[in-house]
Design goal:
Elements lengths: L8 H6 L12 E5 L5 E6 L6 E8 L12 H11 L7 H10 L3 E6 L3 E8 L4 H13 L5 H18 L3 H14 L4 H6 L11 H11 L5 E7 L3 H12 L22 E5 L6 E9 L7 H12 L5 H9 L7 E8 L2 E10 L4 H18 L5 H16 L3 H13 L4 H5 L1 H6 L3 H11 L7 E6 L9 E3 L10
Parallel strand pairs: 2-6, 7-11, 7-12
Antiparallel strand pairs: 1-2, 3-5, 3-6, 4-5, 8-10, 8-11, 9-10
Length: 458
Amino acid sequence: MPPFLRLAMATLCALMALALPATAFEVQSHKTPNGHSFSLLTMREAGQTVVHFAWRGGDGYLPAEKGNLTELAPVLLVQGGSTDMPITELGTRLNAIGGGLLFYTGTDALHGLLIGVAGKMVPTAQLMNAVMARPAFDERWLKRLQRSFVENVTADQATTGGQAWRALREMGMGNHPLKQVRSKTPAENIKKITIADVKDWHQRSLSTGNLGIFAAGNASADEIGQAIDAALQGLPAQNKRKDYPRLNMRYPGKTILLHDPKLTKSYILVAGPLPKNYAPNQEARELGMAVLGVSDQSRLHTALRKELRATYAFSAWISDFSRDNAVLYFQGEIATPQVAQALQTIKASYTSLRQDGIGAVEFPFAKRLYANRAKTLLSQPRDAANMMAEAWLTNRSPAQGLGYGLRAASLERGTVNRVIAAEFPSFDSMTKIVVSPDAKAIKADCVITHFTQAARCR
């Protein structure tokens, strides 16, 4: 899921009074002394500068059973320090200059963030270069990460939500390698990853080419350019990253019951396809999602918590399984005796939104919260740099990525409602998964006892 969709609606409520106007952003194009191109959004009031490196390409060369290397390796890259600088010294030096480093992977890119303050960008970049060019991949750190990873995955797959999502992926993703990446099961596969695998990932991933660079903050273009050169020094010209094969996510329009008598509560997950994220109308889709189930004032939460009293929290969200496979989903724990009634309530609330749209009274309120949130996000260097990087990865200009706030502020009710009607999937076509200790909780099209059996429900 993209980072700008992860903030709680409660934060938005605090922003109501801000009534922030939407503004256009001026993105500058620059070259470093060594000839690396980068985009810059100058934010003079910001307290830091973020340089976002995006190495295009996935990790599709990995065998499926080692797919979770993509989560372990970026962490190990930083936590292992470098061959000439132990992690304790690296941390001390970063803290002393107010710097930070972060690496993470997406399905189509490796991301690296250089976070620093004006006047200290170059020394911060030199520390980033130390771990990129001369990493010390420590076997002991890998074992610790693997133990922690396996424990977390084992605990998650025992939860109602963890079982529901894994069942959805078993049905929808088939044998695609991203299923292991997303579900992380079998968890034992994580133990198969070796230091040799991590070193191979490093050699394939980092380079000075096939790379987009996006900066936002108050440091000067000259200083940022010098920092970029320092960070990339000594890296190979090209990487060997490889895209995953195309994923065609499937959503059987069925109701599946996963019966587990050991549970104490039930869980409902409803999911269906949307046009890919960053396709036209994304802001309209997000606003429709927010009205449906983001805050404690949303339609689903009101119907299920305040009226039916079947749950403490029930939400709607938009995410994706890959760039071409966006998903709209609703989820939450439900009191077991009320599962059947809750599913009917969800259907009625959602169908009403698709057919009738957002009301004339609720639209201005919802739009104001959404537009203010977009504006606030764009005031943060890290979010602004991320939006430019995401735009580049989806073949749009950095300026288009930063146009998020303007697009949010210009939404009109009629347009949004037409998008909801045309692009939100019908309830009957969506996959409905109920995880419950009650074998008769719901009339189901398919009954299973473990998420690994879900493929037979296609």
